[in-house]
């Protein structure tokens, strides 16, 4: 009982005491077991009762000191020690025990107790946060008589519960106003089970954010999984439906073309947008292998069902993949209502759209399938050129005179025309090719020289001879190779001059081959050059004349 009173009074005098978390214990010499206080509410019930004050003073003389606080950091313990000494004076000690720096009061006086008991009453809201539950020694033994003493003190001078409740309510109101943001979280600092967890001073808001973030992440993953599975199921269903419709509609189209069935059976199909598009796709697939009357009959069905309006609408769509689909449908069905839109796509930045526009115009232009070439401003890629060539072969399109495009301003169009002249052996373009040999573009010049040699256009030899000195290395190589394809005795002197004056070995080899191609006369010239002491041509001439190499 003495120990209980002493602890209560000590906390009354020091309501501002705070304690830091404990460090690891260290070995210390034994000391008297102190009394620990778990609640300070009953501390204020001592009042000015002389009998109780005498009893507290007498209890401080026992072997149980009053422990005010235990600190992990020594500087905090020293700070608290200074505060206590300034109030009590002597009778306060600081010692290190079990890894803590502990502050204990070993002696109290009547005057000090009277001075501390009255001013402590306003500190009720500060110290009334715990409940006095037990009084125990360090060994865990309960001090005899302590519970009865506390009940006597409460009965003798009880603190009004309303005042404590009022103080607690005001504290709660202030806390709720300050932490209104924390109420946004389900788990806030008022959660009873979270209060039992020691977070070492960390804010509960951070823990709440982590919990909510994890919850949202898991929910998002579940939602995404459900969406993916549903989308996958939808795609599989659409694929099965598409396969079924393709087989069904293809059979119906074949029956209509070759058995004379009524076109009205397609009316129900054409009323649904999805099935309508499936029907168009099957018509396109079937039309690839149709010619003559069957092709015209299919086109009539296409117009009868009004499917051409859908294709024209797609051709005018702002999305490039929709435009391409519309271009293809119009080209296969030979519908020219959207030609102006297709012409606008010829110089699009999108390579695929540009190529599809070219293919569509080749099929839709009856008089001049390749007239659009004059409108091209973008580079005409080699793949596009190959595609148009394949289109001519597959659909047996009339081959135009490509020489008229040799004067186009787009070098890639000129190169396409040159390749088509060589492919279709259009020898009547010799005069135009002779002019193309002097084209400002080196790529065009080299290709024109190659084609002149391949088509044996001998009227271009003098032009090649004249421009030889002004050309770059690759063009010079092509000129010599073209001369080798068109052997001419009049060029022997020019070729020997190239062999003599040029320092590049590849040029000398090409000139030697060109001389050899002139037949017996060329071989004799080479043998004479090999025996000449003016310049050593032995290695180059022997290389060219060795039949094991060529």
Poorly predicted regions: 11-33, 35-48, 119-175, 180-187, 192-198
Give the helix level as a range of percent.
55-70%
Cα-to-Cα separation, first versus last residue? 123 Å
Strand order of the largest sheet: 1-3-2
Mean pLDDT: 76
Succession of helices and strands: HHEHEEHHHHHHHHHHHHHHHHHHHHHHH
Radius of gyration: 53 Å
Report the biggest beta sheet as strand number plus sense, adding barrel if it closes: 3 strands, antiparallel
How much strand content do the residues show? Answer: under 5%
Structural class: mainly alpha
Number of helices: 26
Strand tally, please? 3
Identify the overall geometry: flat
Key phrases:
550 residues, mainly alpha, 26 helices, 3 strands
Commentary on this structure:
The chain has helices at residues 2-13, 50-59, 74-88, 110-117, 124-127, 146-156, 161-178, 192-195, 204-259, 267-270, 273-287, 292-304, 307-315, 320-332, 339-344, 351-364, 382-394, 411-423, 430-436, 442-454, 461-467, 473-485, 492-501, 505-516, 520-531, 538-545, and strands at 66-71, 92-97, 100-105. It has a domain at 2-172. 58% of the residues lie in helices and 3% in strands. The protein contains 26 helices and 3 strands. The longest helix is centred in the middle third of the chain and has 56 residues, at 204-259. β2 and β3 form a beta hairpin. Strands 1-3-2 form a 3-stranded antiparallel β-sheet. With 550 residues, the protein is mainly alpha-helical. α25 runs antiparallel to α26 (538-545).
